Amino acid sequence: MPDEHVVLLDELDATARAGCDVAIVANPQPDDLRTLPNLKWVHSVWAGVERLVADLGDTELNIVRLIDPRLAETMAEAVLAWTLYLHRDMPRYARQQAARQWLAHDCVRAEDRTVSLLGLGALGAAAAAKLHTAGFQVCGWSRTRKALPDVDCHAGSDELMAMLARTDILVCLLPLTPQTRHIVDAQAIGALRAQASLINFARGPIVDDAALRAALDTGHLSHAVLDVFDREPLPEEAWQWTHPSVTVLPHISAPTDRRTAAAIVAANMRRYRLSGVMPATVDREAGY
User: Fold this and answer.
1) Where are the domains positioned within the chain?
2) Partner of 254 for a Cys bridge, out of 34, 75, 213, 247, CB 3.0 to 4.6 A?
3) Which parts of the chain register pLDDT below 70?
C-alpha cells in the first residue's frame, strides 16, 4: 500500500493517533483501540470476529472481517482430509498398530456415508463441494435457507434434528454467536446416528464440552476431531489430550494466508480511499 502510512500502534504518539482512521488487527486489546479517537473502522485479518464484536460492543466502530477465497479452500481441504480420516477408520487402525494387532475391517463406500455441515457460508459451501466430489452424501444446515448444488440444505431449529438423525459425520463450521453457543449439546449429539463422528473446525463453545465427553465415554460418538477449544492453547490437564476417542489439533484447520490476506486488505483500503465506501461490515446483531 504505497499510498498509505502503515505503522505499529506503539510507534504513534497522541497526535498521530488522532489522525488514524483505520486499524488492521487480529486480536487487539480493546483499550488500545480506544486510544484512537477518530477511528472509523477496524479491518480484521481473521474470518472469526466474535471477540472483536464482544470487545467493541459499547462502540459504534464498524468491523470488517476477512473474506478470503483462499481461506475457504484451505478449510475445505481440511474438512475433506479429516472426513476421510474418520471415514476410513484411521483412529481404529492407529489403536491396532499400538497394540501390534493385524486386523482388517469392512470398508464403507463414501456414497453410503452422510456428512453434514453446520454452517453453509463461504467455508461451508467450499467444503460441501469437495465432499460431494469425493462421493459423500452431503447435508447442510444454516440459520437462514440456502440453496447449494448437490447439498440437501436445512434451515432453522425445526430442521436441525431431522438432519442430525441422518448424519454419520458432523462438521461444525458455524460462527460463534449467542445463538450458536452450545448448539451441539446433549440433545443434538444424541440425535446423531450411533457411532457417528464429530469434527469441530468452528469455535470451541459451539460444542457442549460435557455432553461431548459423555457421548464419547458411552460410545454413542465413535471419535471427535477437535481443532478449537474453549481455552486455547489447550491446557495440559485438559481431558481431550488423553481421551482415546479424540484427535487434538492446535487450531490449524484454516490459518490465514498472509499473502492473500494482505492483498485483500490492501484492495479494500484502496477502494475505500478512492470511493469513501467501506467493505461489507459485520452485522453486530448476527455476530458475523
Assistant:
1) 9-68+256-275, 70-248
2) 75
3) none
Q: What is the pLDDT of residues 211-233, one digit of tens each?
A: 999 999 999 999 999 999 999 99
Q: Kindly state the cell numbers that stand for 71.
A: 481461506
Task: Note whether 9-68+256-275 and 70-248 share their fold.
Answer: yes
3-state secondary structure of 211: helix
Top-level class of domain 9-68+256-275: alpha beta
Q: Is residue 213 classed exposed, middle or buried when 0-12, 13-18 and 19+ CB atoms within 10 A define those classes? A: middle
Element (H, E) at 200: strand 196-200
Helices (H), 68-155: 69-87, 90-98, 122-133
Tell me the three cell numbers of residue 42: 477496524
Query: Which of the residues 51, 132, 251, 284 is marked catalytic?
Result: 251
Q: How far apart are CA 21 and CA 17, in angstroms?
A: 9
Fold (CATH) for 70-248? Rossmann fold (3.40.50)
Asked whether the beta carbons of 194 and 165 are under 8 A apart, the reply is: no
Nearest-CA neighbor of 41 among 268, 229, 274?
268
Active site residue 203: yes
Q: What is the pTM of this model?
A: 0.93
The catalytic position among 100, 203, 258, 284 is: 203
Please give the Cα distance from 37 to 141 (Å, whole number).
41
Res 36: pLDDT:
96
Q: What cell was used for 68? A: 478470503
